[in-house]
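Quick one, tokens below:
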């Protein structure tokens, strides 16, 4: 991969993060992305939301969920298995994006029902990652929500809002943290006073 292509991909990903952050803000969830490498060691955002642009899933009918990344010292956990503050994964494109708990993505990777195809993804031998492909049909069933460009989200698949929000916070309850509690009880984070 050339540096020029890498730079374009990075900029496209950052623009998508901004787009998703703005959409989620409209739903009452503030996402504060980290920009520096130093702070990204904690996670992709202050409040544990990771956003991934997936530009080919509509054509391939599957999402790529990264689990490991090859570094100079060998393989290390990354993506859905990275040890950081991430609890909510957002993945998709400008037509729509899926929300998953990190816990759900980890559980789906260990599935023995034959749906998961764990493969190595190679970008011109410059960066290798290991992960699995999640079929869209399964993503539609397992996601917390899907937010399309024309929808309001939080209940697109017929889930009641409270049920959808409960599934979202499930990934954090094990650690005794609940970043969406105020949202669940109706506090609007967009207000300043």
């Amino acid at each position: 991969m050339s540096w020029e292509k890498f730079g374009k991909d990075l900029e496209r990903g950052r623009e998508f993060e901004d787009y998703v952050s703005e959409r989620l803000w409209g739903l009452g969830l503030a996402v504060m992305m980290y920009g520096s490498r130093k702070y990204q060691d904690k996670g992709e955002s202050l409040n544990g939301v990771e956003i991934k642009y997936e530009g080919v899933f509509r054509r391939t009918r599957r999402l790529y969920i990264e689990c490991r990344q090859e570094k100079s010292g060998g393989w290390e956990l990354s993506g859905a298995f990275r040890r950081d503050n991430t609890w909510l994964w957002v993945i998709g494109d400008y037509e729509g994006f899926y929300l998953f708990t990190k816990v759900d993505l980890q559980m789906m990777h260990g599935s023995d029902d034959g749906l998961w195809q764990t493969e190595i993804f190679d970008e011109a031998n410059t960066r290798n990652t290991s992960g699995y492909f999640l079929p869209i049909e399964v993503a539609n069933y397992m996601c917390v929500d899907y937010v399309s460009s024309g929808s309001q989200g939080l209940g697109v698949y017929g889930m009641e809002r409270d049920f959808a929000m409960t599934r979202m916070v499930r990934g954090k309850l094990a650690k005794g943290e609940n970043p969406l509690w105020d949202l669940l009880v109706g506090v609007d984070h967009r207000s300043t006073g």
